[in-house]
Inverse folding.
């Protein structure tokens, strides 16, 4: 079972083929609004712009299953609408709403939620059939030359789970249950230098930068502390959320100069359905076997941080 489900996740590898995981910048043309918008994207050839305000993401069966269930769940308003599978140049894509369509030169921020960024099954496979990776070793030493162990240095390679755990503890993933992956403000370059953004103070500084110190954005509108509290309530009651291990999923925050704002859940490539006897509360600390992901604990912390950033009335 483990092997077959991992195979399924491997088929979700949207980073195939090109320099894995180098963050690139990609222009996406939003056709209906006739402007070109620069968005932050892990560009691997896995996204295309579709017609009528849609976005095509390289097909992943696990992600398709999630979107199909989410379209029937109370979480539907918080995820991009899903429109099925389409083919381009013999490649299948999941078609979903492009969330930026109704914004005008938006600022966007991607926050990866949860305390764990790899699946439990990846840990099992890493033990049974370890495959140390040179690309991850290189990414590690680029950030901290002292990070690899003596053995890793000798191999010039690290296991993926070890790399992911190192990224978690270096950033706020372990301490706060979420991390800022990157953001881009209107007409500015992408800010992706958050690998070491770990403390509450560092996170607040980054969030403040993202909203240009305009904390009124955090008070009202669809990207605000009340809206996140609403999302939390819906998550706590959602059948989908109870029955899935949600790993590597992000909250996408968007705002623009007209005052439009929004927040959505995206990226369900590593969201896995649980066996029927298991249900998660998404707050209990993870121990191998319990499948907990810390998503709601991270959202609690994010809400708390935003609350503290609100202007005093
Ligand atoms: O952010 P950096 O430090 O570059 O590390 C990346 C991210 O964790 C990716 O997760 P996400 O896609 O959620 O951003 C992950 O993809 P997976 O989704 O495949 O785990 C990559 O694994 P590889 O694709 O195996 O390299 C890993 O190298
Ligand atoms: N539906 C969407 N609408 C607009 N932008 C999106 C949408 N989905 C993803 N993106 C953009 O693409 C980036 C990568 O998306 P994600 O689903 O996390 O891909 P990956 O699985 O390759 O990491 C996000 O940070 C966001 O900027």
């Amino acid at each position: 079972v483990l092997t077959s489900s991992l195979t399924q996740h491997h088929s979700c590898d949207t980073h195939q083929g090109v320099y894995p995981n180098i963050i690139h910048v990609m222009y996406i043309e939003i056709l209906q609004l006739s402007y070109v918008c620069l968005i932050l994207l892990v560009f691997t050839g896995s996204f295309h712009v579709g017609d009528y305000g849609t976005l095509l993401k390289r097909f992943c069966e696990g992600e398709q299953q999630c979107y199909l269930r989410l379209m029937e769940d109370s979480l539907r308003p918080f995820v991009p609408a899903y429109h099925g599978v389409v083919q381009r140049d013999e490649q299948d894509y999941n078609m979903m709403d492009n969330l930026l369509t109704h914004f005008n030169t938006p600022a966007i921020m991607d926050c990866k939620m949860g305390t764990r960024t790899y699946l439990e099954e990846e840990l099992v496979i890493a033990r049974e059939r370890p495959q140390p990776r040179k690309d991850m070793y290189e990414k590690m030493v680029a950030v901290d030359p002292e990070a690899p162990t003596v053995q890793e240095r000798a191999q010039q390679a690290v296991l993926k789970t070890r790399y992911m755990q190192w990224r978690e503890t270096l950033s706020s993933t372990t301490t706060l249950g979420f991390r800022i992956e990157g953001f881009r403000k209107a007409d500015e370059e992408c800010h992706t230098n958050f690998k070491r953004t770990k403390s509450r103070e560092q996170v607040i500084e980054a969030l403040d930068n993202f909203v240009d110190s305009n904390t009124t954005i955090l008070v009202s509108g669809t990207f605000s502390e009340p809206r996140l509290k609403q999302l939390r309530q819906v998550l706590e009651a959602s059948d989908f959320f109870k029955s899935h291990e949600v790993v590597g999923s992000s909250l996408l925050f968007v705002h623009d100069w007209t005052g439009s704002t929004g927040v959505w859940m995206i990226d369900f490539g590593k969201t896995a359905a649980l066996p029927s006897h298991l249900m998660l509360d998404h707050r209990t600390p993870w121990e191998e076997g319990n499948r907990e992901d810390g998503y709601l604990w991270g959202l609690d912390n994010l809400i708390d941080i935003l609350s503290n950033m609100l202007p005093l009335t």
Q: What stands out?
A: Residues 1-11, 17-44 have pLDDT under 50 and may be disordered. The domain at 16-309 is CATH 3.30.470.160 (D-amino Acid Aminotransferase; Chain A, domain 1). Residues 86 and 93 are 5 Å apart (CA to CA).
